[in-house]
Amino acid sequence: MTWLRRRAAAPAPRAVPLSRLTDSFLDGTSSVYLEELQRAWEADPASVDESWDNFFRNFLGQAASPTAGLSGQTIQESMQLLLLVRAYQVNGHMKAALDPLGLDDRAVPEDLDLALYGFTEADLDREFFLGVWMMAGFLSENRPVLTLREILSKLERAYCGPIGFEYMHIPDRDKCNWLREKIETVAPREYPKDRRLVMLDRLIWSTQFENFLATKWATAKRFGLEGGETLIPGMKEMFDRSADLGVENIVIGMPHRGRLNVLGNVVRKPLSQIFSEFAGGTRPVEGEDGLYTGTGDVKYHLGTSYDRPTRGGKRIHLSLVANPSHLEAVDPVVIGKTRAKQFYSNDDDRTKNMGILIHGDGSFAGQGVVYETLHLSALPNYTTGGTIHIVVNNQVAFTTDPRAGRSSQYCTDVAKAVNVPIFHVNGDDLEAVVRVCELAAEWRQTFHSDVVVDLICYRRFGHNEIDEPSFTQPKMYQVIKNHPSSLKLYEQKLLETGEVTKDDVQRIHDKVNRILNEEFAKSKDYVPNKRDWLSAYWTGFKSPEQISRVRNTGVKPEVLKRVGQAITTLPESFKPHRAVKKIFEQRAAMIESGEGIDWAVAEALAFAALIVEGNHVRLSGQDVERGTFSHRHSVVHDQETGAKYCPLDHVVMNQNEELFTVSNSSLSEFAVLGFELGYSMENPNSLVLWEAQFGDFSNGAQVMFDQFLSSGEAKWLRQTGLVVLLPHGYDGQGPEHSSSRLERFLQMSDDNPFVIPEMDPTLRKQIQECNWQVVNVTTPANYFHVLRRQIHRDFRKPLIVTAPKNLLRHKECKSNLSEFDDVEGHPGFDKQGTRFKRLIKDRNDHKEVEEGINRLVLCSGKVYYELDDERKKSERSDVAICRVEQLSPFPYDLIQRELKRYPNAEIVWCQEEPMNMGAYSYISPRLYSAMKTLGRGTFEDIKYVGRAPSAATATGFLTVHVQEQSELVKKALQPEPIKFP
What we know:
Domain Transketolase-like pyrimidine-binding: 597-810
CATH topology of the largest domain: Rossmann fold
Distance between the termini: 81 Å
Shape: globular
CATH superfamily of the largest domain: Thiamin diphosphate (ThDP)-binding fold, Pyr/PP domains
GO cellular component, one term: mitochondrial matrix
Oligomer: single chain
InterPro entries: 2-oxogl_dehyd_N, 2oxoglutarate_DH_E1, DH_E1, KGD_C_sf, ODO-1/KGD_C, THDP-binding, Transketolase-like_Pyr-bd
Protein name: 2-oxoglutarate dehydrogenase, mitochondrial
Strand content: 5-15%
Cofactor: Mg(2+); thiamine diphosphate
């Protein structure tokens, strides 16, 4: 009471807007506060918030000339009525009829009880005054006076019917008011007969498609949509509405449940192709058109694309992204692909290209990548202007009940974290489903933010069609057994209205069945065409069966100088940190002298040269703008104003500011890597890179590596040139900051260790036939060329770069500018031109045959510099050291060249990592195959030097690390065989 009196006496009560009131206002002190507030308003209307000014004007103006039934209304009752309305807006969804099975056991919230607000049955027929400030959505009848019964009826109809709206958690008042206007109408939207016939037709297609598959392939897994068939007409209406609002392209990601139905009925993948895949699978044939087979995947993982006509007469391009069974993993891939579409189509306001994600209820609540993806939705370099999320809520995740699968009321509650509206809808009510799908499209196009549709349905069969669901949900499946389908319910509704006859319904059924059977007949002779597999941007790119000539990657000296000056120059008025200023002065001197080019400058030169050539470059990851090791500084900050400057934005005249994009990402590996993967798949004329903060942090995105990057081309025939930068190197920083887990990427490489492929340069397809490339580069120039190689060829492969840490500033890890150019005779130029060196031979000018060399040490990465330094100290002129820069695919030809050069040398593989890690397990069988062909001994003749096998990647004790490192470097140069205890 004292607090309220103090607030009432305050000079500015206007600081408490009416809209901020909550249920806590209903204690016994509210009337005192209202009286004080009214007196303040009477003394000076401008002294209170505008909302209170409107309230008192409306209420007291009405009370000044009371009508029957209003004479007894008090301000306290008016406020109680306001809070009752607010309770329905906030919690009405808890009373909505959402579960088509009627098994919902949610308790009705206490705040929907009239008694809580002091109202009784006797008040139901009393009339109450409603101002515009309270009930704008209900005033379409232009009746500011309603009985309490009428008010309750409208609230129940709006918030407690087959749709439950959650939106009052959104802090934006305009957004909430927009939704109120849409929700609080006099009656639910009535659709005309022609629209209802379209909906009926679409629902029959959805239902009959599943029935047809079930009849033809009774024992096949198809993860059908039975129980959630309204998804299909709902999606179609959503797409139609989106097209009306300006959307031209939609990228879709979804799990296996209902995927075949979406493919056939929404995206319009040829039904004959779907049926052919059921009958044993059709595979594209090899040939000049670029088609190839790969390993393929199960039919409910595949994707496709199609230009679909809409009900409004427009066309909209739909693409369904292929994905694995790892639930929700495709989410960020779809978002990244959508963002890329927006970039390439100059869709700056993000209204023409849209992403749609379909989820399962268990996975939406349980998979962390869902939140990681939602979290990207408003970030400047990741936003797509809103994604529509549709949760196909079966109410069972495999065999797990909701109470065991999540800790929240709804599976969609995670979306509240980013303030998006959530529309829960009863999946049996087709028109309600259509309504929320249209509303979701309107929201997305209006506010350019995410929205969630929670389609509450059920699974008529088990997790798959040969599963027995009654083992774990007997009560639910007893209800399902006797529950009519959504199609039966809608047909009954239309028949009862008299809008359609039984003959009308039967005609549609007959038409659908006829087409399904016709397509089934065609499936026996179905042959896919190129359009099924390749998109327009990728026209002309080679498959693994077609030779792609190796191209030079050098750049003209004058171009290098010009872009070098651009990337090392800051505006005169710009005031960088003094240390950064010094770095840029040193970089400018490197370009001017052409000597001492370090890693960061080489990278920037690669980016700049690609931009000059018209390519898009995008780099993202945690701290990539500055660089984890404070080496990149691609974005510089003015120390006085905080303004940012990116030199790579100024490489060419009038450069599109997004042609080069560098962005610090959120602290996510899974979603951000997936985003960049999706981005890279849209257009091959782009260099897209993701950098891990430390190499081993990439294991937070292991699903992306396992299921998409390493195997996506084999399974789905989709190429990507994504570059992954993984900082790696043993510097004594402990087990979490040393290893990029190089062995994992090499283990996933699919080249055969016992078969040497064709290595003639004119016939070689080694890289094309491998799933990806793994490199551990040791010079800035070679890093420059391996990045440019990603673009300068007629195919795309992922590139895993084991990136350096201490080599970023190592005094020996430098290159001259001449190693970057394409001038014959310069250091980077050989008889094949200027290009990436898969192996770097010994730095000494050895002849083609050196019989005096007793030991050939093969290594990769920074350990080379320590080996070379030790060789100098010990004056070991009988030891040769070669760097294997490209680990996978293995450079057999160059390895054999060096084996021939040193015919008397003992062969050593040296690495920093433990024996069970690093490259040894990958290198040793391939090195043996190269040796065997030349008659150079047995597998035992390969000497291993490195750390002993270990569970942890590295020691956490600096002194132990130093001792280990010193010993392995010395052992690598010893003439005696290396033995570990």
